[in-house]
Amino acid sequence: VNWNNSVPAASAWVNPGTATFSGAAKAVVLQNDNIAVTAITFASTGWNISSSGGTGVLQFGSTGTIAINNPAGMTNTISGVIADTTGGFVTSISQNGNGTLVLTNTNNSFSGTISLTAGHLSVSDDRQLGTGTGAGNISINGADLLANTSFEVSSARGIVVGQATGGGNGQLSAAASTILTYNGVIADAGGVGNSL
Predict the structure, then answer these.
(1) Which residue, among 50, 51, 2, 45, has the nearest Cα to 25 in the 3D structure?
(2) Measured between alpha carbons, how far is 156 from 102 in angstroms, rounded to an integer?
(3) pLDDT of 29
(4) Ranges of the chain whose pLDDT falls below 50
(5) Is residue 129 within 8 Å of residue 111, measured between CB atoms?
């Protein structure tokens, strides 16, 4: 489904689907239906996918990764809930593109991994990163996990930096006058020349 200065008919969405947001940004509200989405592409800046006024969540629909593409120069927000799918199916997320993706919902309950391969993932609370734990829960290669408010990332989340072959880099950063704390394990993905 392509949102472009207008709201598509509800019948246009078929689970699982892909969504592209372009043109003048609007607030998109997840009403009372859960939305199974495999990929989200932002082609303009200022969008907000929200749960305000509704009970719907974003999920993969089975076990898989919601691929989010947010190009350079764009800042877009998902303030709605990202969750696993009923039946024991796990949702993960990945971010590509050199823009800034902001997650704001502290009720995010997806238990899969977070893979960052470009750009900035901006958060202000560990709960916005879902409920996943374990080694490699957050993978950062050529990207940045950005704290926009002081908080602590759970030490139960393992962070892996770089790539398995070749060299890569990852960054943990904090906005001015804020502190990002992490007392867990930061591991090398295994490639030669990986750096933090």
Answers:
(1) 45
(2) 22
(3) 82
(4) 11
(5) no
Alpha-carbon distance of 51 to 104, in angstroms, equals 11
User: How far is the C-alpha of 176 from the C-alpha of 173, rounded, in Å?
Assistant: 10
Give per-residue pLDDT as tens, 145-190: 999 999 999 999 999 998 876 667 889 999 999 999 999 999 988 7
Per-position b or e across 167-192, b if 16+ CB within 10 A of its CB: ebbbebebeeeeebebebeeebbeee
In angstroms, the CA 176 to CA 78 distance is 23
> How far apart (Å, rounded) are the C-alpha atoms in residues 115 and 38?
15
CA–CA separation, 108 vs 78, rounded Å? 10
